[in-house]
Write a structure and sequence with these properties.
The chain is mainly alpha-helical and about 230 residues long. About 65% of the residues lie in helices and about 0% in strands. It has 2 domains: about 190 residues, no CATH class; about 35 residues. The protein has a two-stranded parallel ribbon with strand order 1-2. Helix 1 packs across helix 4.
Length: about 230
């Protein structure tokens, strides 16, 4: 019987394969499937785009408008990354039989957790999200070990950091496997934790609410002036 969840090895392999794909992340290859793996890939896509924008946002010799554009892109990519993480959790919880499928995408999903199962504070989706970021860190640090425009001391220090990053990724992968195995066996469970990114929502961000109120007042004054 096929297990209802992915192995960490498969997740790590997908992350590394996508980073090595020509054109990624500007161009996205077809996902392995239209369900769980689609959202694992989408999460990785936006993490990769975030990584590139974060680098660009640290520039000091470009116009402020360019940095502002980077910051706006970062907000959008971060929202998309979190949305994909939540979809990963929803799909896994349904596959593991830990939540009612009809309510999985709501803000109040109905749990079907076995009695006595422990609640894990970190979700499987957030661990997969962290593995995506670890893949980027490993790739970037490996590039530092291969630079020819720096001295050997820099490359040697980078090799030490690379080894620690790979160990950290291995530890995290092991924890993901353990959580999913325990969840499948009824020993543990996790929940979808909605991020509710208020700064991206014009209904909740107080600065955007104030901007919209100012616009409405200006529109009202303009309409009144035209009638006068």
């Amino acid at each position: 019987m096929t297990q209802p969840y992915p192995s960490a090895v498969a997740v790590v392999a997908l992350h590394d394969r996508l980073i090595a794909t020509p054109g990624w992340p500007a161009q996205e290859p077809a996902a392995p499937d239209g369900g769980l793996w689609r959202w694992v890939q989408t999460n990785h896509l936006f993490n990769c785009r975030l990584w590139a924008e974060e680098d660009l946002a640290r520039r000091t010799t470009v116009a402020d408008a360019e940095i502002a554009a980077n910051k706006r892109a970062i907000d959008g990519f971060n929202q998309a990354r979190n949305d994909a993480t939540e979809r990963v959790d929803e799909i896994l919880l349904v596959a593991l039989g830990l939540v009612d499928a009809a309510s999985a995408r709501t803000d109040a999903p109905r749990a079907t957790v076995p009695a006595g199962a422990r609640l894990n504070s970190e979700t499987a989706g957030s661990m997969i999200d962290r593995l995506s970021i670890m893949a980027l860190k490993v790739n970037a640090m490996r590039a530092q070990t291969e630079r020819r425009d720096v001295d050997e001391a820099h490359r040697e220090a980078s090799r030490g950091k690379l080894a620690r990053l790979e160990q950290q990724r291995g530890d995290l992968a092991g924890c993901l496997d353990a959580l999913l195995a325990d969840a499948a066996a009824g020993r543990a469970y996790f929940k979808v934790y909605r991020q509710f990114k208020m700064y991206n929502d014009p209904r909740f961000n107080p600065a955007l609410v104030a901007e919209r109120a100012t616009e409405r007042r200006a529109e009202g004054a303009g309409a009144a002036a035209r009638k006068a």
